[in-house]
Amino acid sequence: MMPNVKETKEFLESKLTGFKPEVALIVGSGLGGLTDAVSKPVTIPYADIPHFPQPTVAGHAGQMIFGELAGKRVMVLSGRFHLYEDRSLEEVVFPVHVVDALGVKVLLVTNAAGGINPVFNPGDLMMIEDHINYLGVNPLIEFRENGEVKFLDMTQAYSTRLREKMETAAEKAQIQLRRGVYLATTGPSYETPAEVKTFAWWGADAVGMSTVPEVILARYHNIEVAGISCITNLAAGISSKRLSHDEVLEVGKASQAKLAKLLAEFLTLL
Prior knowledge:
Blueprint: H1 2-16, E1 23-27, E2 39-45, E3 63-69, E4 72-78, H2 89-101, E5 106-115, E6 125-133, H3 139-142, H4 160-173, E7 177-184, H5 193-202, E8 206-208, H6 212-220, E9 224-234, H7 245-268
Helix pairs in contact: 1-2, 2-6, 4-7
């Protein structure tokens, strides 16, 4: 896979004429409107990028945007990949290899998630303090360096330094910021009420179908990570309402302005 990463990197650099991103942002379901806040954008469709997968899920635009946000040089990946799309784990995490190859050392991950914590409401933003990997897979199983297994410490999966700055940014922006643990399942079925009860007992505050593989690989590359979940719905059994992807996209879209304001304030503190 590494020759593919090299080719992708060289293609992107040929389009960027010396632009060197400092921060990367992976955008979750229904949150693609965050790209509107990027100034001087250079937009490259995933379809034009060598070896890059194509998203197949509504709410994922499938384009990379380079530009400036809050005075920082950023690259925004508008559209991510999921195991439930019948992707290999290599495809899911390929963008993180590219982020590393471009020399980026800070990654912000966002996602849409179901709220398990009973105090959460749709539209809340939750800073991810830690995660639980319930996917049954780990990208480091497939990705080895020189054939050797990599045993990776995940104590600082989500950087304490960046979490402190995110809390400061929320205070400055006067945005309520929840805090909690994110649990990832494979999907595409939503969780049963019994599963949600189990996840709550394990200590999960929100549940989704992404993010964890990307974070693991980012930490492998020694990239600092901060994460925000947009609580787009209450998980099964927390309310009697039926779950739907349409609701996820609707609430995500409504939360974009608040999330963009938070992230812009956060970037000024880096």
